[in-house]
Amino acid sequence: xxxxxxxxxxxxxxxxxxxxxxxxxxxxxxxxxxxxxxxxxxxxxxxxxxxxxxxxxxxxxxxxxxxxxxxxxxxxxxxxxxxxxxxxxxxxxxxxxxxxxxxxxxxxxxxxxxxxxx
Length: 118
Prior knowledge:
mainly alpha, globular
């Protein structure tokens, strides 16, 4: 049980470190007017999807079987975190649901590829 929790926490860190690093770089580029607002919108989506895919890939490589279930567990944690932050800051809108489903699918695909790459 403890190994499983540590595995998912590491998977979450694999999501969080690239996510925060790439967001910091994007913020710096926006601050110095290298990127405009339209580009930042798309960069935010790509950054989250790359981070979700990499964390799913990592969790899939650490799983012994059924990588898609491991990816679903990890992506549900990530989605719940984003949902909680969203509810506290802006409120829920229905188009956010599509955004969360894309994160879930991306993490699950990453975990399926990760378990096959092992």
